[in-house]
Amino acid sequence: MAAFRTRVVRSIPALRDTVARWRRNGESVGLVPTMGALHAGHIELVRQSRAQCDRTVVSIFVNPTQFNPDEDLDRYPRQEEKDLKVLSDVRADLAFIPVVEEIYPEGFATAVHVGRVTTGMEGTVRVGHFDGVATVVCKLFMQATPDKAFFGEKDYQQLTTIRHMARDLDMPVTVVPVPTVREADGLALSSRNAYLSPEQRRIAASLNRILRETARSIAKGRAIDAATAAARQALLDAGFDAVDYVECRAEADLAVLETLDRPARVLATARLGPTRLLDNVSV
Ligand code: PAF
After folding, report:
1. CA 227 to ligand 1 center in whole angstroms
2. Secondary structure element (H or E) that encloses residue 283, with its range
3. 231: Cα separation from own chain's centroid
4. What does the mean pLDDT of the chain come to?
5. Residue of the CA atom closest to atom 9 of ligand 1
6. 164 a catalytic residue
7. Of the four, 5, 23, 80, 202, which is 20 to 30 A from 190 by CA?
8. Low-confidence ranges of the chain (pLDDT < 50)
9. What is the side-by-side order of every strand in the sheet holding 275-282?
10. How far apart are CA 48 and CA 159, in angstroms?
11. Which residue among 42, 113, 129, 164 is the active-site one?
12. Nearest residue CA, atom 1 of ligand 1?
């Protein structure tokens, strides 16, 4: 029997034609948006989509509008052939791999801005980032018209932003959160982990440990301000070069919390050299 091969389309009409054919057969469609450099975290998203939908589309698009001028868009790993092998192995039906002009043609002048949940944290450090994410994900939703779309909890503020966008704009798609896939020592899988030296990789593991300890101490009644300040210091002591933020926010809408009066998440970003590592845990 011939090995399964994920089909590739690069144009929006070809994507729409395939999805329309599936729909005529009564099949449901799952979408997994990615920027490529696929790892086990992405594979888990595809697995979830395959388990919950008849057909799975994976988009691979390094979205320029979500990178700031000081972030190296050109340095972002691109490995199409390797990614297609991964997708074939997990039997994703279709890979949508557009060029930049397919998504942002000459004269493109629209942006989707999601308010409130994008303020603070990544929204402060990466100004404009979530407008880029919301715009491209909105376009992917319009192009692939999925029943469900799958996003990792690792990028928790991104997940919350997309959920709010889909709800506020009445998009007929269910946004499905997928728990973070981790290495044995707790480090959340990320394409950025590839940039770490062996020493940085050792330090990186302490991010999740410190966040879990912080969440436990808040759950036991420690004041949120004191707990997050202690976490910041613990990250620096563990060897991180800088800490962008450690915050405890409401799980549903990322509201700033003064006391633990509803389900919450502790979220942080810390830097090792030029590499930013994100993680979050529930309280
Ligand atoms: O999480 C990502 O890889 C990207 O932000 C996404 C959701 C694919 C949008 O470009």
Report:
1. 30
2. none
3. 23
4. 97
5. 133
6. no
7. 5
8. none
9. 242-250, 264-272, 275-282
10. 16
11. 42
12. 34
Strand partners, 19: none
Which residue, by CA, sits nearest to atom 5 of ligand 1? 133
* Among 4, 102, 92, 104, CA closest to 50: 92
Length of the chain: 283
What's the pLDDT at 203? 98
CA distance 39 to 32: 13
Pocket perturbation via mutation, ligand 1, pick of 158, 159, 175, 190 by most ligand atoms within 8 A of CB:
158
pLDDT digits (tens, 9 = 90+) for 204-263: 999 999 999 999 999 999 999 999 999 999 999 999 999 999 999 999 999 999 999 999
Question: Which letter does DSSP use for residue 163 in this model?
Answer: H
Q: How far apart are CA 238 and CA 256, in angstroms?
A: 26
Global confidence as pTM: 0.96
Amino acid at 232: R
CB 63 within 8 A of CB 109: no
Q: Tokens 């020493």 appear where?
A: 199
Structure tokens at 280: 């979050």
Distance 225 CA to ligand 1 centre (A): 31
| Predicted local distance difference test score (pLDDT) of residue 105 | 98
CA nearest ligand 1 atom 8, residue: 34
Query: Which atom of ligand 1 lies closest to the CA of 34?
Result: 8
Distance (Å) from CA 2 to ligand 1 centroid: 32
Cβ contact 278:188 at 8 Å: yes
- Read off the tokens for 155: 């990028």
Residues lining ligand 1, CB < 6 A? 33-35, 63, 66, 133, 136-137, 155, 158
